[in-house]
Predict the structure.
Amino acid sequence: MTKHARFFPFLYKLSLSIGLAIGTFFVSMMLGAADTSFKEVWLSVASDVKTDTITMLREIRLPRVTAAVFVGAALGVSGAVMQGLTRNPLADPGLLGLTAGANAALALTLALIPSANYFALMIACFLGAAIGALLVIGIGMMKKNGFSPLRLVLAGAAVSAFLYAVSEGIALRYKISKEASMWTAGGLIGTTWSQLQPIVPLIILSICIAFLLSRQLTLLSLNEELAIGLGQKITQIKFALMIVIILLAGASVALVGNLAFVGLMIPHIARVFVGTDYRYILPMSAVLGATFLLAADTLGRTLNAPFETPVAAIVSVLGLPFFLFIVRKGGKA
């Protein structure tokens, strides 16, 4: 099959996915504790009209929905990059220590620097995610054979449990359990434009870098020797891709807390539609991740309105069976 013969079906599928994401965006804006009309949603996005409802949409619901779009895209892309880089179908920032590391660093920062602003907390999350990743990769490479999917998952589970325990211990010792829980529970409640300003450009930049390296990632996901034979500088590429993963995972935790399984599920769903080429998987993962998190957040707001069901709980209910399915499928293989 020629390049153009593959590209045009992908473009068609991506366009349909973007259309679905836009539709989900407007539904998410309309539904919640206070249901609104499509006209009010449109005016809140495309005009300067000011009414109580439109102001609510513009200042409360729109930042939240925007956060869902970018965090969903970030988690989808970071999961896809991790799975390609480690050749591990179970790879996910929430399962391999990055999220737990970011949580521990955030708790430590809240305890030691109570006056830390949002930018400082974001930097702490990046450093924590990097430490979590290094611990998991270090443990995963301790044996001669290096990475294996099972060893990485076990190392991720052990490191995550340890770092979550560190986070809880810090919260109890410094009596900041309430503050730490509000940050790490996994939710989009209370997202503001001031929080989005430093995070969104970073997510966009990181995703663009991942797209630029998608061809190299495809080669790495197939065979490292093949990538070296084709002249790829795999050490530099791996380092750049790990930085992308850390930035995307750290930004996601800084904005909405712990949301496991999104980065696991979305790349697998994307592969069903576009195959194994990461030039197609990454854009599709970004769009599907945004759509999925928008839908999950909308469900959380509407299931028991005016009360909220935590979006992390909804994602976990969907993600755990998917995880077990992938484990079973991998075991058979």
About this structure: The radius of gyration is 20 Å.
